[in-house]
């Protein structure tokens, strides 16, 4: 049974704030109560138990506003432990229209006043009608006139309306009977998601819906291999963390088939910041065995001996040459070979360009690229290097210029509390590229092996938004 909204009054005013550190504050008519729990679900249970007590004390339903990481949620809570969402669309469905009607009734005080006026007017009307009938003169009976058969009285019965003639069309124009819209799943995040686990299905918040759209973008597969190039002319511009997080998100949501390639002509850092397999293979080993890997007899499992699988993030890494005494210099032909091998075994290739942009290898990476990503930090020289990278590409050739115009710039906060700086740099890039995304500082990206799940929830959400922006260019 739906909660009777006409019983809800303007007081008590109740609000609940749920923090990321599993602490919360419940405010009832200005009086705050502090709560702490081991996890978010336990915290929400404590807060709702207290709200049930408040509703029971008032012997009627109450309204409560909750704020957590999923946004603002309005709830109606009854003394018998029923909970409804304030903004749910369920009340507008045909079978629930009767229960939705009370939402349009006036405030209780106005309803009482109107009810009183109605109660007073009704008896007065009946008394006046009685008095009028009693004072009316009694007339003598009037003889009835004979019935006259008229044409109007004999109007013919109307025939049922015939349907309009059907206009024939070709079957190619026939519309499908299948609905193109999928059913919206209930909320899974925050207070709304917690209520869903209790069997109270509440629509997702706008934040959760936006996240679902981003997940849909990064989960798509395309015909043929797609290549993403992460480029900035300067070292320390966050290229390695950017490659790692883009590859992880595409693989985690899209189902594998993702290769991260360290295209640094010298010793790159992607191998240092990722999980190592049970071998020491690098890009040089792929080049040495490229004929066999590209042959018709090769199978997908053959690549496992050359790439390093990331067990938690579900993608593979092709390391750069890490020999301290190596003399091999990557060429454009080498890049073409590596790309041909990657295209045979993977659906998506994310390349770290390295810092040298004047060799033939860098030019061929550009030629194979479908989407350009330019990372930078909040340090001014890194941002300037990102801008110069875009300018150089714009002047190179038509393909490179289109990549620059369609680029996604990802700005990472180098230190905590640099959001203002990141936003200022973002505004400087925004008129010249397709999209700019800022991500917060995260200590999990500063050093050591990068595992996407180790990032903070705010950081993971920002990287998902950035990856979705990249996916839209593929």
Largest sheet: 8 strands, mixed
- The helix fraction, in percent, is 25-40%
CATH topology of the largest domain: Rossmann fold
Q: Name the poorly predicted regions.
A: 88-154
- According to DSSP, the number of beta strands is 14
Beta-strand proportion: 5-15%
Classified by CATH, the class of the largest domain is: Alpha Beta
* Whole-number count of domains: 2
CATH A-level architecture of the largest domain: 3-Layer(aba) Sandwich
Q: Can you tell me about this structure?
A:
There is one protein chain. This protein has 14 helices and 14 strands. The chain has 474 residues and is α/β, with parallel strands linked by helices. The protein has 2 domains: 5-104; 214-471, P-loop containing nucleotide triphosphate hydrolases (Rossmann fold, 3-Layer(aba) Sandwich). The protein has an 8-stranded mixed β-sheet with strand order 9-10-8-11-7-12-13-14, with helices on both faces. Strands 3-2-1-4-5-6 form a 6-stranded mixed β-sheet, covered by helices on one side. Helix 13 (419-429) links the parallel strand 13 (408-412) and strand 14. The two termini are 49 Å apart.
């Amino acid at each position: 049974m739906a909660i009777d909204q006409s019983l809800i009054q303007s007081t008590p005013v109740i609000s609940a704030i749920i923090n990321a550190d599993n602490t919360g504050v419940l405010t009832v008519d200005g009086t705050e109560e502090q709560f702490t729990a081991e996890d978010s679900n336990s915290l929400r249970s404590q807060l709702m138990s207290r709200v049930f007590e408040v509703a029971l004390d008032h012997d009627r339903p109450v309204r409560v506003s909750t704020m957590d990481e999923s946004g603002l949620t309005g709830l109606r809570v009854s003394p018998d432990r029923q909970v409804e969402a304030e903004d749910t669309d369920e009340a507008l469905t045909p079978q629930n229209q009767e229960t939705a009607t009370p939402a349009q009734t006036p405030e209780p005080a106005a309803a009482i006043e109107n009810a009183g006026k109605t109660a007073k007017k009704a008896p007065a009307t009946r008394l006046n009608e009685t008095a009028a009938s009693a004072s009316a003169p009694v007339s003598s009976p009037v003889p009835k006139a004979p019935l006259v058969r008229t044409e109007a009285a004999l109007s013919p019965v109307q025939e049922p309306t015939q349907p309009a003639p059907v206009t024939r069309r070709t079957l190619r124009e026939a519309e499908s009977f299948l609905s193109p819209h999928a059913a919206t799943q209930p909320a899974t995040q925050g207070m709304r998601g917690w209520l869903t686990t209790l069997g109270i299905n509440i629509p997702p918040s706008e934040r959760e819906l936006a996240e679902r759209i981003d997940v849909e973008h990064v989960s798509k597969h395309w015909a043929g291999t797609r290549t993403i190039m992460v480029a900035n002319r300067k070292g320390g511009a966050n290229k390695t963390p950017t490659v790692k997080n883009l590859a992880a998100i595409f693989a985690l949501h899209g189902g594998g088939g993702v290769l991260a390639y360290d295209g640094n002509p010298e010793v790159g850092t992607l191998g240092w910041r990722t999980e190592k397999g049970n071998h020491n293979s690098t890009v040089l080993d792929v080049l040495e065995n490229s004929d066999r890997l590209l042959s018709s007899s090769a199978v997908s499992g053959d690549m496992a001996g050359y790439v390093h699988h990331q067990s938690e993030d579900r993608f593979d890494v092709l390391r750069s040459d890490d020999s301290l005494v190596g003399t091999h210099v990557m060429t454009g032909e080498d890049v073409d070979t590596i790309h041909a091998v990657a295209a045979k075994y993977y659906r998506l290739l994310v390349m770290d360009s390295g810092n040298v942009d004047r060799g033939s290898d860098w030019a061929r990476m550009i030629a194979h690229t479908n989407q350009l990503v330019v990372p930078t930090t909040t340090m001014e020289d890194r941002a300037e290097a990102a801008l110069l990278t875009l300018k150089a590409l714009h002047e190179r050739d038509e393909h490179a210029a289109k990549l620059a115009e369609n680029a996604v710039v990802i700005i990472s906060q180098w230190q905590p509390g640099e959001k203002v700086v990141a936003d200022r740099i973002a505004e400087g890039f925004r008129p010249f590229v397709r999209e700019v995304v800022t991500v917060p500082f995260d200590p999990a990206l500063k050093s050591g092996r990068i595992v996407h799940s180790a990032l903070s929830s705010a950081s993971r959400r920002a990287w998902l938004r950035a990856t979705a922006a990249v996916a839209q260019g593929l």
